[in-house]
Amino acid sequence: MGYDTPLREYRFVLEELSGLSALLDCPGFQDLSVDLVRAVLEENARFVQSEIAPLNAAGDRSPARWLDGAVETPPGFRQAFSQYAQGGWQGLQHEAELGGQGFPKLVGTAAVENLNAANLSFSLCPLLTDGVIEALSTVGSEQQQALYIPPLIEGRWTGTMNLTEPQAGSDLSLLKTRAQPQPDGSYRLFGQKIFITFGEHDMAENIVHLVLARLPDAPPGVKGISLFIVPKFIVSADGSLGERNDVWCASLEHKLGIHGSPTAVMLYGSGKGEAGEGAVGYLVGEANRGLQYMFVMMNAARFAVGVQGVALAERATQQAWAYAAERLQGQGLEGPSKGPVPINRHPDVQRMLWTMRALADGGRALAAMAALARDLAHHHGNAEERGRQQALYEYLVPIVKGFCTENAVEAASLGVQVHGGMGYIEETGVAQYYRDARILPIYEGTTAIQANDLLGRKTWRDGGAVAHGLHRQMLATLDELATAAGRGGTHQAGLKVIARHMEPALQAYAQAVDYMLDQSSAPAAAFLGSVPYLMLSGVVLAGWQMARAALICTEALGDDGRGPQADDPFHAQKLAACVMYASQVLPRAPAHLASIIDGADVAGYASQASD
Amino acid sequence: MGYDTPLREYRFVLEELSGLSALLDCPGFQDLSVDLVRAVLEENARFVQSEIAPLNAAGDRSPARWLDGAVETPPGFRQAFSQYAQGGWQGLQHEAELGGQGFPKLVGTAAVENLNAANLSFSLCPLLTDGVIEALSTVGSEQQQALYIPPLIEGRWTGTMNLTEPQAGSDLSLLKTRAQPQPDGSYRLFGQKIFITFGEHDMAENIVHLVLARLPDAPPGVKGISLFIVPKFIVSADGSLGERNDVWCASLEHKLGIHGSPTAVMLYGSGKGEAGEGAVGYLVGEANRGLQYMFVMMNAARFAVGVQGVALAERATQQAWAYAAERLQGQGLEGPSKGPVPINRHPDVQRMLWTMRALADGGRALAAMAALARDLAHHHGNAEERGRQQALYEYLVPIVKGFCTENAVEAASLGVQVHGGMGYIEETGVAQYYRDARILPIYEGTTAIQANDLLGRKTWRDGGAVAHGLHRQMLATLDELATAAGRGGTHQAGLKVIARHMEPALQAYAQAVDYMLDQSSAPAAAFLGSVPYLMLSGVVLAGWQMARAALICTEALGDDGRGPQADDPFHAQKLAACVMYASQVLPRAPAHLASIIDGADVAGYASQASD
């Protein structure tokens, strides 16, 4: 099935929901305009739909192949990446002084979603390259930035993150890869890294690996980890490529999904490189602060993986909606007709279609809120506001990552269900989404890791300040809903449904935050509820954005159904999505709360799992 | 990973929770005893663990293959099925007068679960054969029963169900396959059937297809469908095999999972049979009552698919628990230790492990309640009670099918998550469960079809009588919980957690039933909530059984921790599962209710999916 970039929805989220126009008034965006953003996203849509989306199924059926150390990507990937690079898409959201185009993250996020919706496997290469660019531009030396960033932005080279080792996954304190200092100031790395996405491939001239390793005198644990640049081909001072480094792809994993994306086992220092034994590496920043630096890259990557979740939910949703409009089966509820009706006339199919739509749209609105906060944290004129927005962004990143990726699994599963038996046949294509989606809540930190972050660093550390602030803002939206519903009019019923579910959801959010603050000295009780706490937060915050969207839609449609944009079918459909989000998704918040507040009472029982 | 038949759990469910001993006092079971049942299940466990379970991963990697019309099953399947047949396992729950062993369905259900947990793909062949035996023993003529049932029970032949056609899936009124009467009283069938599980294979001498088709003068719709026996090889009056019939496997589907099970496209009447053009078929029962007859088989098969859900949840749960006990990662909550701890010490992993365990155990308890009802419906001495139990069984079948299969998908997904990145690698084996599980909420009637059945035939038709009766029984259990918790003692905290969640869950159940009864004239509003209604019913009814289990456990452990079975670690673990079910699963009931009672308010918005 084809994929249609939801351009109208992007416009709504950027312009109507997130205030793109106001953002572009901030310092640093003077060369941009709403019209330019529209034009860029339209061009992005054209390119992605025609060149990237058609490779998705083929990449699934012809996985990346390991051939004696080299890796052949699926048919068409190489050419497509070259076009992607030539189009300047890799630089879209990077700063102009580094060779990027300097668009806000809010805009970049739409382009990232679009690319991932078209082809998740392909998109992983640019996604990780973005992370390497962001890390080097933050913590790399001037020389490192000058040497590595421009070719990465130009798409001549690509980047990877090397964290995981067989014994060290979620727990990076167990890292063993070691870096030996050399007389010339460089290092030689020795070790094995696993699960390295696009660790080897044939789409670029060089690959820039960012690698976590230990120096000989490093303290144990996470405080003894340093960050290194290890290029596949050693880069001369003039930027030209030199000897083949001693870093090798030993094999590729045989995975459930994302077949088009090579997941490599990487060996550092096997002695086969032209440069001699040990992979030549260069320290980034100070020694032993590698994990801290990697967090820069990880935060960018975690946010982007959350957006992958939105993208996959969107893709699955589109295909389910299209199938349900075509597949004829069963009588309509109106009574016997002349023949079978499209299955989108059946209420239960509608429930599934809207739940998928609500999960995709809610996640997108949440991610946009986070992206906007990131942009304001860098561009707002007021320093205090920049600080507030940075805190908000950091609070939202684990929620975007955890909530949107778990939802992608749910949406993909519902997508199979809408297709019935046909969904289980690989040729239909929706089984691929179900397989692809399953990695999203795992890589770049499992949902549990995100939940630890939300609880430990983003709730306990600030005493719930960000969360309480959000709660106050959400209560204000609830008041607006009540006022709007009180006016009567065509959309009163929908607004009332939203308000009815928002109220207990907001209560649940406040209670969950306060319960968690109370449990800061009882970690077992708190961490038993950490993932439900993250999911509750996502349900409520995305629900808030959907409630805001509903208010915008009723304004556009008019109380009398004759508002300024009443002729545009978009707002009526969007309002339906908001109502269905409230009805089908918001009730999960009180359910999560009920599990969370059991923590202290059930911790003793739960711990019997380790008896 | 190996699979361990949970024999101790089976004993608990059969003997302690379901009252096996009392059941065996019913007429017809005089030759059976609790000890014999134990011995049979132990032998079943031994056989299944050693001969069937080891073929599961191989069947996934070497799918059934189509070879010019013939089908080669995966390595070992043929020999294993022969051993299965020789062991008499196909006849375990069938009546003695037909050549079966006459065990109660309660016992047969444990054996079915065990087989499916070991190897879902393999088990589909016996599962469908069971359905054909049940259908023919109910509606076949004496001659048909004598000719077909013994070889099916002996495992020399196997059976299939042929309903679906490309244009007729959930909606069987669209069936086109036609049956032409012949002068000798037989029929010739012409048409195409799809999604025919084990429609062709190499494990048996003959295959007995039960096929839905239309007679030339049949009325349109579901009232014009008749049921036919179409054997692969025509059977002579003496039971010997004759000519190859004109029924052919045209191809096999390329599926997301259950690779070991061939899913066939079947052609009836292509003219290539030795018997000439058209597949020779024999009418079962009366003309035009085929769908009604097929429901006999479907009810048996639907229940069995629900049990498949339990089985898959059990298998995924076992593997996750084993991995979590071995994988070392992270510090324990007690503070820094000498090294990493097994991940089952982390509260969030415990949450996942127990949620999986709760879903598997809760589903098993629910299925046992249904199986017991079926046994009592056939064997209870009192006719009125038989009627009550039959109504209960019929009420429970769609819930067992829908709830347990949706839970299998959730449990398999959690199982991948517990494994982290390793879960996404196919060699680990848990990705197979995630793929296999996804068919369960689809085949033998999607969850929506089950929900239609629960709502239309099992709630509206009897005015909620069965549901109201269950609600009264559940309130009595809630009273027992309060009394037991009031006694104080070691397990008071756990019982209080259960009671705390049971109360709103029971309220939600009662309110959902009453809401649905009120909406019987507003089908859109009701059917929007039909699947949530089914899931709510499953959550609450299985939760009730888990509450009963908790009461049994506290009795066994003793209020002072020195009860009659305090030394057996089983009851303490089981009690923990019951507490965690209450904490993690029961809160879903009020959330489902909140979605359900929106029906009338949101139906107008939802219907925009078909605009």
UniProtKB/TrEMBL annotation, chains A, B:
Q: Does the keyword Oxidoreductase apply?
A: yes
Q: Which reaction does it catalyse?
A: 3-(methylsulfanyl)propanoyl-CoA + oxidized [electron-transfer flavoprotein] + H(+) = 3-(methylsulfanyl)acryloyl-CoA + reduced [electron-transfer flavoprotein]
Q: What is its EC number?
A: 1.3.99.41
Could you tell me the keywords of this UniProt record?
FAD, Flavoprotein, Oxidoreductase
Cleaved signal peptide residues: none
Boundaries of each Acyl-CoA oxidase/dehydrogenase middle domain copy? 161-263
Q: Name one Pfam family in it.
A: Acyl-CoA_dh_M
Cofactor names from the entry are: FAD
Does Flavoprotein appear among the keywords? yes
Q: Which GO terms describe its molecular function?
A: flavin adenine dinucleotide binding; oxidoreductase activity, acting on the CH-CH group of donors
What range(s) does the Acetyl-CoA dehydrogenase-like C-terminal domain occupy?
485-601
Q: Where is the Acyl-CoA dehydrogenase/oxidase N-terminal domain?
A: 39-155
Q: Which SUPFAM superfamilies match?
A: Acyl-CoA dehydrogenase C-terminal domain-like, Acyl-CoA dehydrogenase NM domain-like
Which enzyme type, at the first EC level? oxidoreductase
Q: Which residues form the Acyl-CoA dehydrogenase/oxidase C-terminal domain?
A: 288-454
Query: What's this chain's function?
Result: Involved in the assimilation of dimethylsulphoniopropionate (DMSP), an important compound in the fixation of carbon in marine phytoplankton, by mediating the conversion of 3-(methylthio)propanoyl-CoA (MMPA-CoA) to 3-(methylthio)acryloyl-CoA (MTA-CoA).
Record-stated family: Belongs to the acyl-CoA dehydrogenase family.
What's the protein name?
3-methylmercaptopropionyl-CoA dehydrogenase
